[in-house]
Amino acid sequence: MLPLERHVFVCENRRDPADPRGCCASKGSHEIRSRLKELAHRAGLKGRVRINEAGCLDQCARGVTVVVYPEAVWYGAVTLQDVEEIFQSHVLEGRPVDRLRIDP
Amino acid sequence: MLPLERHVFVCENRRDPADPRGCCASKGSHEIRSRLKELAHRAGLKGRVRINEAGCLDQCARGVTVVVYPEAVWYGAVTLQDVEEIFQSHVLEGRPVDRLRIDP
Question: Per residue in A57-99, pLDDT tens?
Fold first, then answer.
């Protein structure tokens, strides 16, 4: 067996709109996951990279939250504009994107 | 920062009941995740261990599927009866439960 080279989890938790923390779903996490999946598919990474939905990663106010294993790197306030950089630098080349890292 | 000691993902994907693969949701994954969360809470592991819902882990016929990081260990056909062993042996003591491991 070859383990996954990267296993990416994108929080898609949805909270009540009145919750002051907000939530990843309301900040576009579904679109972010879709774009990551599309990039992985185009790069022919099936079986080597997996992009998964995750439940609440408990960083609601700092979402959209993305976690990448095996490096256990957490990203916060991720927007659709950040996705290509995360994909190219971290998922493909193994270099985490420091400017987006958070300490969970 | 201290990284999570264990980050556990339980697939809760639900497929059409007519799908011959079945799905983790129909095999009790929600109850499995709830039990893992309860055990982690009782053990006082908040901030050290996180139990998360995951979207489809692409092992539908072999579900319930559970993945544990940072070891990147995949478990298949997990039942509620297996949860305490996974928790005690792997989550707490760092020894994966070989009899339940699958090769994704």
Answer: 999 999 999 999 999 999 999 999 999 999 999 999 999 999 9
Residue of A nearest to B53 (CA): A55
Quick one: B47 exposed, middle or buried, by C-beta within 10 A (0-12, 13-18, 19+)? exposed
Distance from CA of A78 to the nearest CA of B (A): 19
What's the pLDDT tens digit per position in B16-67? 999 999 999 999 999 999 999 999 999 999 999 999 999 999 999 999 999 9
ipTM of the complex in this document: 0.93
A35-65 per-residue burial string, b: 16 or more CB within 10 A, e: under 16: bbbebbeeeebeeebbbbbbbbbebbebbbb
What gap in Å lies between CA B42 and CA B94, rounded to an integer?
A: 18
What the block records as the tokens of B42 is 């009782």
pTM of the complete model: 0.95
**CB pair distance less than 8 Å for A52 and B9:** yes
b/e map of B50-70 (b: 16 or more CB within 10 Å)?
bbbbbbbbebbebbbbbbbbe
Show residues of chain A in contact with B41, CB under 8 Å. none
Whether residues B52 and A53 touch (CB distance < 8 A) is answered with: no
Distance from CA of B11 to the nearest CA of A (A): 9
Residues B10, B36: contact at Cβ < 8 Å? yes
